[in-house]
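BUG-371 | component: ligand-complex export | severity: low

The export step for S-adenosylmethionine jobs runs without errors, but we want the raw record kept on the ticket for reference. Input record follows.
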Amino acid sequence: MANGVNVPERLAREWLATRRSSTPVATAVDPRDPMWRVIEQQPATAPEVRRVEYLRAGAEAADAVLGALARARIDAAGARVLDFGCGYGRVTRHLVGRIGVVEACDVDADAVAFVRDTLGVEARVIGTEPRTPGRYDAVVCTSVLNHFPEARFDAWVAALAPAVADGGVLVFSTHDPASLAGVATDGDYTFVRQPGGHGAGADDYGTALVAPARVVERLRSTGLASIDRRARGLWFLQDLWLATDRPLRRDVWRDPTAVRGRIDRVRIDADGALVAEGWAASLDAGAFRGVELRRDAPDGPVVGAIEAGLPSPGQAAFHGRDDFANAGWRVSGTVDGPVDALWLVATDRARGIALDVRWLGRAAGATAVSE
Ligand SMILES: C[S@@+](CC[C@H](N)C(=O)[O-])C[C@H]1O[C@@H](n2cnc3c(N)ncnc32)[C@H](O)[C@@H]1O
């Protein structure tokens, strides 16, 4: 708390405002949400910005879904969409108000209750056994099928394809093979069990690595033969798949996560000298130089001078992209007084994307803040 304001909530709302959307988005997070717990366990993510991270991940996925509808020539305002494996509505909440009718389902009854009661979405509990859940203009599975063992993956693809109405689209994600480079693969489908996995037994839920050609082959067998795979198109992490029975538009693709970046380290000395370091990259263009650091709010004053194009071999390795090897940046400057937060902001004004925020606390004066 600072000045009586709920700071995490305020930062989340400031971040949402950078999206320049008039559609309200629920900011309530259920601490039981495993997606929230993943963020909680990331040491690099300061507690005060967790809610921003959570909202941002959901918003990026929702943008991907809206992009998929556009590519499949589906009018979002008139569409009926199922968020399959909705969890606690991390993505669902960003679809509401942007799509005509949003429904949701999950095997986790607590998650379904949250989505229904807190987000006001028609949500239902479904069984783990593959079954066609209805018929929709789009069926969306963000980070769901990539957790299934082989037989279950195949069976669910076969069950979900008939849930896609004529001209509709199936949107789902798989792990990018390059993101699991350390995992020993076993043919074209590798499954690593994850004990205690969401709503299913350890044998049914884990991390799956499936060869893209195999995904294509499965989709074709269902009749959804117009297929697109965007490597790392979801969160710069998972491959995003679109499958439909009609030709996909190629001209409207906009990367849902146009630019991604992070403030990795910040140091402010007692005299106000600030040094911050991080990285920024775009899937389309590789290392991205158009970022700046702003203090307190996404439209706050620019802090210091930025040096871009610095080596970032870790990002190149993690993303499996050589053109991320010089995505590093460094800012040196001086700040006056306590700093509420630092925002890494893309300077692409047309999009106005706020990339990252790092909470710095309210020290008495601009005193040292470190990792
Ligand atoms: C990694 S979470 C993703 C949740 C949500 N889509 C998101 O992106 O935040 C995977 C979700 O799939 C759900 N799930 C697992 N098996 C399922 C099944 N057979 N049918 C529907 N949902 C399932 C889990 O309960 C969990 O909520």
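Assignee comment: Attached the raw record above. The CA atoms of residues 10 and 52 lie 10 Å apart.
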